[in-house]
Design goal:
Strand order of the largest sheet of chain A: 6-7-8-3-9-10
Number of strands of chain A: 10
Shape of chain A: globular
Radius of gyration of chain A: 17 Å
Mean pLDDT of chain A: 95
Number of helices of chain A: 7
Oligomer: homodimer
Order of helices and strands of chain A: EEEHEEHEHHHEHEHEE
Bound molecules: adenosine-5'-triphosphate, magnesium ion
Chain lengths: ~220, ~220
Amino acid sequence: AIILAKVTKIYRSGEVETYALRDVDLTLENGTFNVVLGPSGSGKSTLLNMMSGLDTLTSGTLTIDDAQISAMNHKELTRFRRHNLGFVFQQYNLLQTLTVRENVQIGAQIATDPLEPEEILKRVGLENHLHKYPFQLSGGEQQRVSIARALVKQPKILFCDEPTGALDEATAKDVLAILQALNETMQTTILLITHNPSIAELGDHIIRMNSGEIVDVLTQKNK
Amino acid sequence: AIILAKVTKIYRSGEVETYALRDVDLTLENGTFNVVLGPSGSGKSTLLNMMSGLDTLTSGTLTIDDAQISAMNHKELTRFRRHNLGFVFQQYNLLQTLTVRENVQIGAQIATDPLEPEEILKRVGLENHLHKYPFQLSGGEQQRVSIARALVKQPKILFCDEPTGALDEATAKDVLAILQALNETMQTTILLITHNPSIAELGDHIIRMNSGEIVDVLTQKNK
Ligand SMILES: Nc1ncnc2c1ncn2[C@@H]1O[C@H](COP(=O)(O)OP(=O)(O)OP(=O)(O)O)[C@@H](O)[C@H]1O
Ligand SMILES: Nc1ncnc2c1ncn2[C@@H]1O[C@H](COP(=O)(O)OP(=O)(O)OP(=O)(O)O)[C@@H](O)[C@H]1O
Ligand SMILES: [Mg+2]
Ligand SMILES: [Mg+2]
């Protein structure tokens, strides 16, 4: 399980303090598909950054299974993320100087049982773009490279920040079907942020946020 | 009117040629609200880049009212865009070293009748973020700065590439209401790219694309 206990995150810039998360308690059981909904600026991406060890907590703790993540140093955190976590970032975060296939290969390199980069790229419809650079891709193509890169290492836990925001309906459906299949066949734990209520229907649990707080957790399915 | 005649755009990288647009003919009448729909990679952003003079045509012509845009040099193009056009880019394109308010002020500087930056920022809900830098904003907040920057100079023609993709339903509604009001009261010509069919309902015309071609133009309203 991923357990956030009494987590607060405050961003300080000069005099200004922004409470991005206030006293959040949240547990994600292994193998669950969790969707996070909430207005722009409500703290969804911050929640993802806290739950994945990508950023430090101002106060509170993060535990993933038996590992005390919030107590790890930078080196331990980096190794933990590499071995266990996959990310689809809201702004894609592709390496601009590597091709599509190289961006995905990098994701496979440190994995114990990686998929074939060209296979996963084919599944997201990018087989004709393998040798292009990110600046030569459309918005939705860049997003799909980001998705392929996260999936190729078959992570235990997958964090997706609006992974279909730049995709048309049909392409988005394909991607969400891949994620659902992963969750059902591989018991991959998924945390997916979205603005789209119809995507929320895919989740076992819906986590609603507002102004840095979790206001509601709805359980739709029991596993 | 904005007139594309027989426009083709080919991207070449090494041996590979990508036909991003094939022999496109399209006219947008002044004061119309036009929505572009189509799958990821179908050429929507490329169409916008061609219609706005942001990028060169491989063949064909672009005329805006009586100006032969495709015949202009770099300096004339830059001046034309500054005086007449506003842009909301798919990747926001904010200046990272300027604050929220400064990013919008820059948009106002070269305008004949600019709005007040703080006013327009308030209308998109960002009054508490004026002194932050883009990296300190959520995805949807960055998108809204991009929107405010385009609107502040009250352009004759507004090009919006998925301007609400990162926004929740309520915030997206506010933004679209602002765009509709602009179109109705100021006769601003709008070209809006979206994946969301419900947003398409706002348009006077819906332009459907697939594989670099315009496959359909539907007129929903007459003005
Ligand atoms: N580095 C930072 N410094 C200051 N404030 C920040 C920083 N990063 C985020 N914030 C603020 O924290 C709040 C929550 O941000 P977060 O990115 O988690 O929102 P979000 O729910 O993901 O929004 P969106 O749906 O727009 O992506 C926002 O108001 C944002 O401005
Ligand atoms: N600089 C470039 N070099 C090579 N190919 C390019 C370049 N820019 C765009 N393309 C290709 O042209 C096609 C159309 O791109 P475009 O960005 O117009 O698509 P789009 O409809 O906006 O897609 P999306 O909905 O994903 O944003 C894509 O297949 C893309 O890979
Ligand atoms: Mg976010
Ligand atoms: Mg695009």
